[in-house]
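Hey, weird one. I pasted the Acyl-CoA synthetase sequence into the form twice and got a warning about non-standard characters only the second time. First submission, copied straight from the form history:
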Amino acid sequence: MATDKTIPYAAEPAPGAAADPATRAFGGSTGGGAPRGWSYATFPRLLARLAAERPDATALQEKRYGIWQPLTWAQYQARVRDFAHGLASLGVQRGEVVAVLGDNRPEWLIAELAAQSIGAAVVGIYPTSIGEELRHILTLAHVRVVVAEDQEQVDKLVRLLDEDRGGLLLETVVFYDPHGLEQYTEPFLRDFTEVEAAGREWEQTRPGWFDEQVAAGQPGDCAVICTTSGTTSRPKLAELSHANLLAMAEHLTSIDPIGPKDRYVSFLPFAWIGEQMLAVACGLSRGLTLSFPEDSSTQKSDLREIGPDVMFSPPRIWESMLSEVQVRIDEAGALKRKLFGWGYSVGDRVAERRMRGQSVGGLRLVHAIADQVALRPVRDQLGLARVQHAYTGGAPLGPDVFRFFHAIGVNLKQIYGQTEICGLAVVHRDDDIAFASVGTPIPGTEIRIEEDGEILLRSASVFRGYHRNPQATAEAVDADGWLHTGDAGYLDEAGHLVVIDRAKDVLTASDGTRFSSAFIENKLKFSPYVEEAVTFASEGGLTAIITIDPLTTGAWAEHARLSYTTYTDLAAKAEVRDLIAEEVHRANEDLAESIRIKRFVLLHKQFDPDDDEITRTRKVRRNVIAERYGEIIAALERGDDTATIRSTVTYQDGTRLERTLVLDVVDLTTFHAPDDRGRRPVWSGRR
């Protein structure tokens, strides 16, 4: 039975929107003068419209050999048309699923829009996926055609076919980076450009066919299939329609005006709902220019060069940026540290007043000076100098990290949603940001809090269902259309949604206090030296398994003249244990006694998605951690001095070595923090 805390925002439709976004025309112009009343409620129709309205404007640009290579909307549309005909020549039919596997490149989106143009759906696969993950998705979705980026991805698929145990329907692999594949002779391999050429030839005998297929597409057709996070089980495949995604885009952009002059750097996997949400759905509905970095090594410099207006990243990206700044300031000279410390304190006070709805008053002039000499250079180094709309989502972001970015002048806002609701249901408003909340519902979205605290959501963006899994669909969405999120939370007095945690991850302290494990873990991860933390409740108090950040901790070790060889060696150093103990002690200072970390262990390795310890979006699989490291958790609960674990190391030649490791347990009840807190700069954001 539900409480009466239902907040409908359907009374705030996007301008010009009819009541039902699944059937209404998306008539708002993307920058040109197309008449209202046309139905552009599919991705291919939006692309056709942009190609007609702004043929010579840049739609996509990719950096190759240090030079940005632009693709106009007209060229984009032409390549989509060619590849769509090419897919048809391969036998792809309406209702089928085409898979795309690889990093972000124009060819990914060309393949996606081409498949959708002829009525097929696209399932994105993370480029880091291997073995059984690939088999699971390809088998479940009955995929016959895969578009793969390069030799690395092709090799994975070749191995799958070589060891096929039945169930795979894969017939064709199309690759778009031919480097290293020149000598491959497998008959199922096709070059992307060859498929485009075949498409042009195929079109000669079927004039008008492509336009007929685009016109036949319906808003309710499945556009994209996204894998769920899979933190507790195998990822499910969530079907999202054009209408689902475009309703979300319409409602978000009615709050934050994103337009055709805005730039977006696309570097997070298109398999993630967040990138489909911003880069694809909002990109097509508002005509954004998308830029693709040359590779991961140039990502930061390319981000600085482009200076995007819009940015959406999961917490790990923002946390990484914060760590980068912390390390840079730690290593800077005394004058620079003092200058930034002063600028940060001014920015922090201004941000605090704005969050409270108060006037900046006399701080306005001094803040302008502080921004010019201390804060803007930091934003510029991070590639955030031009950002007008900055979002985070996919997992909780600690309030300390939020505070930092607002203090340096980045208007960072939390997005709350799930794959099953197109990634977005709730967002902060510019003038109404509370760090502890995730904001208020976007237009067209309703929220209900069940008596057990579960958050329920309802909107036109709730997904079509799980692919070939009606039972799971019925469990996720009830007969009244409410999506059961599995998250626990509440609505505060101002109507903001406060998300506590996944309902199953809300823990109980020894005194009966219910608390969010994610909140405490985010406090720990505010440290630049902590990469990941997983907390556990026991009668003896809270304990944690912590992994160190190898880059920042390694830099600290070098500065401290501490030699080491491997990650395992670094994590085992007594000096590193003391460093992390200080960081945990600082985090504990802000927590009630009953929910403070009492003991922790530094794990000998990083959590790895290939080991199923975290998802491809780097969410911790708590059940896997609890099972795999049960002996460590038991030692922490007992208060032992050490914890023993057996570890297997696999070398590049395939040989495996098993060894027994003894990890030291750090007991914070007997730890005394040093008087000198000089390891962390005064501007850390802690009060």
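That's the output from the first submission. The warning seems to come from a hidden character in my clipboard, not from the data itself. The CA atoms of residues 220 and 241 lie 5 Å apart.
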